[in-house]
Amino acid sequence: MLPRLRTCSYVLRHYAKHFYSSHSGAPRINTIHDIYDKYTKGIPLTMCTAYDYITANWVQKSNCDMILVGDSLAMTTLGYDSTTDLSLQEFNYHVKSVCRTSGPALIIADMPFGSFEASIETGISNAIDMMKLSHKVTSLKLEVGLHSRDGYTIKLIKQICSRGIPVVGHIGLTPQKIHSLGGYKVQGNKKIQDAKELLETALMLQEAGCWALVLECVPHKIAKYITSKMSIPTIGIGAGSGTSGQVLVVSDILGMKDGYVPKFVKQYAQSQDHSITALCKFNSEVEERSFPNDEVHAFKIKDEVWKSFIDSEAKS
């Protein structure tokens, strides 16, 4: 049974839409009901952050429960120094790319920095516009600071949820607020008050209407305790094994880039090494003229057409 949420009417409509689409030949997409069904059975949830058609298509083929189109693409894909450098227009381009994939994953989109801070009205307007990017956008995710400092975002989430838009909250390390946090640091591990306020903020977001919660860089004991007090799923990243599910960035999972790898990341492949090796081989074979092979990689012309062409050239 779903907890009492402001989004219930939307959830039911969304569920019905995908129920009928599955009977019309289109792939059945996970709904919030499906996620809750798995959650209530105690089966850990899987979420992967992907930003483009190719990587999102890989995630779809893996049967991951959810895809998060995260604003972390600013740094992992676009080369910016911070998520705050990303514009809403750039971000929406990537959301639409991910939504062109076909598969079961429920798609959640971040609301990037600058899309909701100016005013409640601006936040609501942008939230509606983002939901209209594609019918496959099922939910939005908003980063929220501790409630004593960030009552505004909690108020906004209430307003968005009251309009039938499902929202996932995000607490702990929130990269959009990195300057006020003093850097990329574990949250709730130094002071009792901060740990208590993380729990209070989580409960306030649940009451505001959030149907799920991301916990980032929170001590595993705190994350497990918060999860035990919630009636909605928690998705952890750097929060230990006691959450309802886990999320990692696809480029981290596949080892697609250089540089520092956070403690909470497990790389399941080394795609960058394999890719660079393949590209070096391509370069060498082109220079050695072993690629392309005309018998394998090229197109042929009928002998009589070729002879006529050469004859015509000789006469010109």
Automatic annotation (TrEMBL):
Enzyme's top EC category: transferase
InterPro entries from the UniProt entry: Pantoate_hydroxy_MeTrfase, Pyrv/PenolPyrv_kinase-like_dom, Pyrv_kinase-like_dom_sf
GO-annotated cellular components: mitochondrion
CDD domains attached to this UniProt entry: KPHMT-like
Gene Ontology molecular function: 3-methyl-2-oxobutanoate hydroxymethyltransferase activity; magnesium ion binding
Annotated catalysed reactions: (6R)-5,10-methylene-5,6,7,8-tetrahydrofolate + 3-methyl-2-oxobutanoate + H2O = 2-dehydropantoate + (6S)-5,6,7,8-tetrahydrofolate
GO biological process: pantothenate biosynthetic process
EC number(s) per entry: 2.1.2.11
NCBIfam families: panB, PRK00311.1
Functional summary from the UniProt entry: Catalyzes the reversible reaction in which hydroxymethyl group from 5,10-methylenetetrahydrofolate is transferred onto alpha-ketoisovalerate to form ketopantoate.
PANTHER family: 3-METHYL-2-OXOBUTANOATE HYDROXYMETHYLTRANSFERASE (PTHR20881:SF0)
Protein name listed in UniProt: 3-methyl-2-oxobutanoate hydroxymethyltransferase
